[in-house]
Amino acid sequence: MVPGKEEAWLFIADAGESHRGLQALRRLLSGLAHELRTPLVTMLTHLEVIRLPAIAPEIRTQSLQILEEETRRMLRMAHDVLDLGRLASEPLALRPLDLTAVVRAAIAEKLPEAQARGQALSLEIEAELPMALGDADRLKQVFLNLLDNAIRYSRAGDRITVTLRRVPEGIRCVVADTGPGIPEAHLPHVIEPFYRGEAGESGGSGLGLTIVAEILRQHQARLEIESRTEGETGTQVRFTLPAWVGSE
Question: Could you tell me which residue ranges the Histidine kinase domain spans (predicted)?
Fold first, then answer.
């Protein structure tokens, strides 16, 4: 710095990275606008029905029920959008944890729903597991979301199995079902925000797997999805979590 001269600071931004970030934001906002349009149109339609002077009580009740369902759907969507934003701005604090306890808690929460649909839900632990390194609440969220998808898209009589086993890299986690499977063309897109493929309206927010993939990324884990739609149909979702080195 030269005496008597004004000091100036130069900041050089990565325009390419900024452009990619803006593109991702545009895709997210575009998808969100599209997803909000459907429930809003449905809600307006049923509000008009309720205002009809000679409406039958059973039709009014049905319209009120649909309004409640669509409102809850929009709340889930808003919650997941905010959750995705928190994940992007607040890195997870990873600590030693008992992964078996986390998975058992998730299964216990989803078991009544699976049983009500006539599906078998079980846990298999292939070996004594080390402590995992992770965020217990977020990992429970991962398993709840994967189980929710497996239950929602499987049929009565299908089996859903969560398997945990020790591998050199850590703990291998697999959520497998014997459901109808995901068509090959859709597999590369299932973690994209609001992507639904041929499933249409599923009752979810459309962000579940996007959030799962981000949580696992922050655990240094990669989400793998394999599916079969012919023969022995079904879907396997796999990832490997790091073990806590202090557990050795």
Answer: 31-245
More confident residue, 30 or 52: 52
| Residue 197 to residue 69: CA distance in whole angstroms | 22
Q: Which residue has the tokens 């977020």?
A: 138
Quickly state the pLDDT bin for 23 (edges 50, 70, 90): low
**Minimal CA–CA distance to 103: which of 135, 139, 69?**
139
Distance, CA of 23 to CA of 20 (rounded, Å):
5
228: DSSP letter = E
> How far, rounded to the nearest angstrom, does the alpha carbon of residue 205 sit from its chain's CA centroid?
9
Residue 230 tokens read as 């012919």
What is the pTM for the complete model shown?
0.75
| SS3 state at 100 | helix
Question: Which residues pair with residue 162 across a beta bridge?
Answer: 123, 175
Query: Beta strands of 14-151 (E only): which ranges?
Result: 95-97, 120-125, 132-134
Residue 62, both tokens: 């049905």
Sketch out the chain's domains with CATH numbers: 17-89 (1.10.287.130), 95-242 (3.30.565.10)
Instruction: Fill in the DSSP letter of residue 246.
Output: G
Write the pLDDT tens digit of every residue in 96-137.
999 999 999 999 999 999 999 999 999 999 878 999 999 999
